[in-house]
Structures are given as structure tokens and as C-alpha cells.
Amino acid sequence: MSLIFNEPLKHRPKSRVELHVHLDGAIRHETLWEVMRQKGLSLPGNGSLSDLKEALKVQEPRDLAHFLQAFAIFLPAVVGDAALMERMAYEFLEDQARECVAYCEVRFCPHLLLPSHNLTPSEQETQLNGSVNGAKEMVVEDVMDAVLKGLARGEQQFGTKARVILCCFWGQSEWSWDILRLCEEYKERGVVGIDLAGVEGLGSESESFTKSAVECAVFEAAKEKGIHRTIHAGEEGPASGVQKAVEMFGAERIGHGYHVLEDEEVYKMCQQENIHFEMCPHSSFLTGSVKSLTTPSKRHPILRFAEDEVSFSINTDDPTLTHTRLSDEYKLLISWGLTEAHLTRANFQAALHSFLPPKEKKQLIDQLKEAYGFIHYSLPPILCSTSTSPSETRTSTPPPKPSVTFGTWADRS
């Protein structure tokens, strides 16, 4: 009997939607360990897989900058390697399919994966001599092609649909216009939106506007071109950053946004504008974002959002660093008291606020309805009567029975 009970479920409907996950932060530990060993790159500890995993784990949450330090350990293995980029995109979709994800929007910055940005001058000179991965010839289009090829192959094999959001970065304004160009040029190949990530530049009121002038102009242009927009805001920055992201940058969705609860007026504005919040439960603790909140209530903001029926989705952010999958995020939320109704609503809100075109968005919502077993029920005709009285319903005249009159016995046919 135990063998029967332990037999895994053979079919699990794809019923989840994820909108906020970074591709370069969602690489399998096993893949990184394998590639770093092959390339002779320095591995933490004694070089074991377990030591690599431990090094990538945030031991004591501090702030976002501390959380992001782990990228320096493994990103050198990725930059300049188109084959690895294709592989990690393909494996990403395999992992998403295992998590019952019907649709996801994965984001990355192609410029961050170019060798010229991540290597020291001596390493760049080595690569210019043509010794590593053909990196001397790599341009952003090569990164885009590799990632999109991996996603397309994964989508075809595993059945999870994926689209791409391209990230601008605070402090890297020289990339922003090029990111916008790529959003336009790769629109027909699956790029659906633009993002602004990194340590927030939408800080205090005294901050000079010139710091964000380029990014603001890029996002204004994106809006004019019909390119969808999401911005990391309110993760460690103040509620005013969320307000600027919406009012100045035209953000339709907010990545994280926890600090929005520090200003009730900004929070109400987001509700009125139907702003969608991309929530990342485990990440919010590991980055120190929730710990730094100055709200009277110490509950996680997602609980307030759920109670107020604010639009939000459930996401993993950087699984390589959080050591979580989507199911782990759901388990955490369930332990806080969220019910299947909250989780279901979050997935439908994610689908509704996805950056898919209307026809594909409807198809996704229909797919979710089928996965959740929504029943299309119509009342029996007698209950659809306009009569308001039960007695009238019971005594209403039945429809006349058909009658046939025969002239003679021979006419019966």
C-alpha cells in the first residue's frame, strides 16, 4: 500500500503566473558548480557544491547591496558565454514547469552579461586575444539571441510560456537608451517590457533630479512607443520612490514596493491607479527590506495588501540567492494565514497585469480558469422565470402538449 501512496502525481495543471524573477539570479547551483569547475574559476571553501551553495546564501540579512554581493561569486562564469546563457534559459523554463507555472516574465540586463563590463583590464586583454568563448566579438544582440533561443526551446519542450523584460540599471545610464532600442527590435521575439533595477535612485526629496533624468526620459519614450513598464521601487527606498515611479516614470507595476505602506496617501494613490505589486516574500527578508520598515505594524506588507485586495503577485526574485522555488513562497504565505482564495486571486491578478497583448492575455486567463476547474453553471429554465413568488412558480401553467388529429386510420402516418 505504501508504494501506491508514494507514487507521484502524474499530471499537475499549470496554474501559476510569475512576473518578477531575474534570469541571472535563477541559475541552478549544480550548473554553476559544473561550469565554474570546467573553467577553472575560484570556488568557495573546499570547492564542493555544498560550499558553493553555502557561500550564495545570505547568512545575516543587512541590505540590498549585501544581498547582491553573491553575484560576484558566479557571474564571471556566465559573462561572455552564449552557450551557457542559452542553457540557463532552457533550464530556467524546465524549473518553472516543475513549479506548475503557466506563464512567466523573466528579466535581465544583457549589458551585464557582456565581458567588457565584468572583467578586469588584464582579463579583457586576455579575451581580446581570443582565448575565451569568442568573447571579443560578443555584443548585446548575441546575449539576446542566446537567451531567447533557450527560452523558445524550453517553452516548446516543457509547455511553460515565457516572455522577457529588459532591465535598465541605476548608475548605468549609458545603457538605458540601448535597452529601449532592444525592447523595440525584439518585440516580435518575446520582449514585452522594460524595467529599472539596482539600488534605488528614487530616494529622498532632496536628491537631484538630474540623477534620474536619463532614465525618466527613456521611460517616457517607452510609454509613447507602447512598451510596458515596471520599476523596482520601495524595496529599500521610501514610499516617495514608488510615487515617482508611477507619476514620473509611468510605471504600471512596481517591483517589491514594501515601503509604500509608510505613506498612506501614496498607498491610496496606488490603489486608485490599480498599480500591481510584484511581491517576493523570502527576498524581502533577505534584502533587509521588511526589517527596515518604519510602519506601526510589523506584519509583512503582503498581509495588508491581501486584506485590502490590492493587486499583487507572488514571485521568487533571485532563486539562486534565496534558495527557494515558487512552491516555497506559497508555503511561507500559507503559514502567515493566506488561503487558497488569496493565492488563486494573486495568480489571476498576475495574469491580468501581465505584459501580454490582450488576445494572449485572455488565452492565459482561460488557461488558468481551466486549470482551477472553474465551473460554467447555468440555472435550470424554471429557476430563470421572472416570477418572484415560489407559489407562482409551482402553479404556473405548463406548456401545452402536442396533439395530433387523425382523419382516418390510414392518415396516421
What features would you describe in this structure?
This protein is 45% helix and 12% strand. By secondary structure, it is an alpha/beta fold. It has a single domain (12-371), classed as TIM Barrel. Helix 10 runs parallel beside helix 11 (213-224) and helix 12 packs parallel to helix 13. The longest helix has 19 residues, at 140-158. Residues 119-135, 204-210, 390-396 and 402-409 have low confidence and may be disordered. Residues 387-396 have a biased composition (Low complexity). Belongs to the metallo-dependent hydrolases superfamily. Adenosine and AMP deaminases family. Its EC number is 3.5.4.4. Residues 16-370 form the Adenosine deaminase domain.
Unreliable runs, pLDDT <50, ≥5 residues? 119-135, 204-210, 390-396, 402-409
Tell me, what is the CATH class? Alpha Beta
Average pLDDT reading: 88
Q: Into which percent range does the helicity of residues fall?
A: 40-55%
CATH topology: TIM Barrel
Distance between the termini: 64 Å
The largest sheet, given as strand count, sense and whether it forms a barrel, is: 8 strands, parallel
Shape: globular
Overall CATH architecture: Alpha-Beta Barrel
Number of domains: 1
- CATH homologous superfamily (4th level) name: Metal-dependent hydrolases
Give the H and E element order. Answer: HEHHHHHEHHHEHEHEHEHEHHEHHHHH
- Bin the strand percentage: 5-15%
Describe this protein with a few key phrases.
413 residues, TIM Barrel, eight-stranded parallel beta sheet, 45% helix, EC 3.5.4.4, hydrolase
